[in-house]
């Protein structure tokens, strides 16, 4: 059936050309946005004519033919408006051409604004211009895009058919604008850093690898923004941020997409306590600007973003959930102590055991906004040690609805300690940890020239967008998520 419909539209396309009409003209008449037209004439009473002539352009989304007159619905990016065309007003030939349009085609219509007896603001069509031919039919509004895979693979159709999808991405855009406005007002400078990097750094993750032909060198798509932003901090930009894409060669789930958007920021002369306050302020502003409240509904769960948010140390949270007091226990003793409490753990590195216990027993309980603080130094190679507990770091992660939303440190600025941490990470790589960091001599060279005390934070903007748009999957807030090729799906 679809092939027949496409053929019929292609036949119409050729017919337009035979009759001398350009189905894809390069020029468009001067037009007004539909929302502005509706707003300017909203005071018209039923059956009242404005005397004002308007021209709008958009996609034809409905055509109702009734003999010598027809009603059309035209939509642009701001709204939808009704138009009324009649043989008496435009003539038989022009009217017939108009009725020959297909839903999905683009056109411009001109005429006087009036309100119908039923109260609908309408354009009395006096003329129209063909703008673009759609050779495939649009999805049927209520039934055509229930297939989730189709919605993700053909996002343009999803946006056309589902008002909720369009509003979700408009709200996401407002979220991004709010973050930039707040940071700019606080004196932060937005910069850009390389996507192609000779050493992937700033996070524990597997990178994507590519090859630069002219340099005959392998490069990596960045996994984080951190190390280059810190170089800007060292260079004297005391408050710096970037909103950009990162890439991690990992699985896909409702919370993970290999290509994702991060906000990373660094501020001199503060620490992770300052970053907690900043997180509460920034995310609170996002909620107020996009949702209108600090208390939001997410997937049926009420979430309260009123500060201050709960804080609990990582090892304390594990102890509360499991009864295990990890302290500085080595890996084999952690496994033995866990077994005494009926918890079977695989033989693994200490860092992996801590992550496993946290992911299994703590993370599923973190629903309301919660700062998990004071991570062990082994899993925080870029964070400053706590002076009163050197085996811990001044680090937090923010969790909401069992998802990590933000990660922040009092930044390590001791180049000797940083080099040792990198070397420790290299040893972890040697025994099988593929996600451990690598030594970055260029970054160490910059740090050795002096780095101010600072706090830094990264916020996963796709996950934050999930919260502000009540989206169950990260794919719902990424316009074009990572998918298998059609032939592989």
Could you explain the architecture of this structure?
The structure is a single chain. With 489 residues, this protein is α+β, with helices and mostly antiparallel strands. The chain has 2 domains: 2-132, Nucleic acid-binding proteins (OB fold (Dihydrolipoamide Acetyltransferase, E2P)), CATH 2.40.50.140; 160-309 and 368-476, 2-Layer Sandwich (BirA Bifunctional Protein, domain 2), CATH 3.30.930. The chain is 34% helix and 27% strand. The protein has an 8-stranded mixed beta sheet with strand order 6-10-11-20-19-18-15-14, sandwiched between helices. Strand 1 (49-66) and strand 2 form a beta hairpin.
| Strand content bin | 25-35%
Stated plainly, the CATH topology of the largest domain is called BirA Bifunctional Protein, domain 2
Q: What does the overall shape look like?
A: elongated
Count of DSSP strands = 20
Total number of domains: 2
> What is the radius of gyration computed over CA atoms, rounded to a whole number of angstroms?
29 Å
Taking pLDDT < 50 over at least 5 consecutive residues as the criterion, the unreliable ranges are: none
Average pLDDT metric:
93
* Secondary structural class: alpha+beta
Strand arrangement within the widest β-sheet reads 6-10-11-20-19-18-15-14
What is the name of the CATH superfamily of the largest domain?
Bira Bifunctional Protein, Domain 2
Ends: how far apart? 23 Å
Number of helices: 15
Instruction: Give the helix proportion (percent range).
Output: 25-40%
CATH architecture tag of the largest domain? 2-Layer Sandwich
Main beta sheet: strand number and arrangement?
8 strands, mixed
What is the CATH C level class of the largest domain, in words? Alpha Beta
């Amino acid at each position: 059936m679809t092939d027949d419909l496409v053929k019929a539209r292609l036949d119409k396309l050729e017919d337009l050309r035979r009759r001398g009409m350009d189905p894809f003209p390069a020029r468009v008449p001067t037009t007004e946005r539909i929302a502005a037209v509706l707003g300017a004439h909203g005071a018209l009473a039923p059956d009242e004519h404005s005397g004002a002539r308007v021209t709008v352009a958009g996609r034809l989304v409905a055509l109702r033919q009734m003999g010598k007159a027809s009603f059309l619905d035209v939509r642009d990016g701001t709204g939808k408006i009704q138009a009324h065309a009649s043989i008496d007003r435009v003539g038989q030939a022009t009217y017939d051409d108009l009725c020959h349009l297909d839903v999905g085609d683009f056109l411009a219509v001109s005429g006087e604004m009036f309100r119908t007896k039923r109260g609908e603001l309408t354009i009395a069509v006096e003329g129209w211009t063909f703008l673009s031919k759609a050779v495939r039919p649009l999805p049927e509004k209520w039934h055509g895009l229930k297939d989730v895979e189709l919605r993700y693979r053909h996002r343009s159709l999803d946006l056309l058919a589902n008002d909720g999808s369009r509003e979700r991405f408009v709200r996401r855009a407002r979220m991004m604008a709010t973050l930039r406005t707040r940071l700019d007002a606080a004196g932060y400078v937005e910069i850009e850093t390389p996507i192609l990097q000779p050493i992937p750094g700033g996070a524990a993750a597997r990178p994507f690898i590519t090859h630069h032909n002219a340099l005959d060198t392998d490069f990596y798509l960045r996994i984080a923004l951190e190390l280059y932003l810190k170089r800007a901090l060292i260079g004297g930009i005391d408050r710096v941020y970037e909103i950009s894409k990162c890439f991690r060669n990992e699985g896909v789930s409702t919370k993970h997409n290999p290509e994702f958007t991060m906000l990373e920021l660094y501020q001199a002369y503060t620490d992770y306590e300052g970053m907690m306050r900043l997180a509460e302020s920034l995310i609170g502003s996002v909620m107020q600007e996009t949702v209108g409240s600090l208390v939001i509904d997410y997937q049926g769960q009420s979430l309260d973003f009123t500060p201050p948010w709960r804080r609990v140390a990582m090892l304390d949270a594990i102890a509360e959930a499991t009864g295990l007091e990890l302290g500085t226990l080595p890996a084999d003793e952690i496994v033995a102590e866990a077994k005494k409490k009926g918890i079977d753990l695989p033989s693994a590195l200490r860092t992996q055991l801590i992550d496993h216990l946290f992911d299994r027993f703590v993370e599923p309980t973190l629903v309301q906004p919660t700062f998990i603080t004071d991570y062990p130094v082994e899993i925080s190679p870029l964070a400053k040690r706590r002076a009163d507990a050197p085996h811990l770091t001044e680090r937090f992660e923010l969790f909401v609805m069992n998802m990590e939303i933000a990660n922040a440190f009092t930044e390590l600025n001791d180049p000797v300690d940083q080099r040792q941490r990198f070397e420790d990470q290299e040893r972890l790589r040697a025994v099988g940890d593929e996600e451990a960091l690598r030594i970055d001599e260029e970054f160490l060279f910059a740090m050795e020239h002096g780095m101010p005390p600072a706090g830094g934070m990264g916020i996963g903007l796709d996950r934050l967008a999930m919260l502000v748009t009540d989206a169950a999957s990260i794919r719902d807030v990424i316009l074009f998520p990572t998918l298998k090729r059609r032939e592989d799906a």
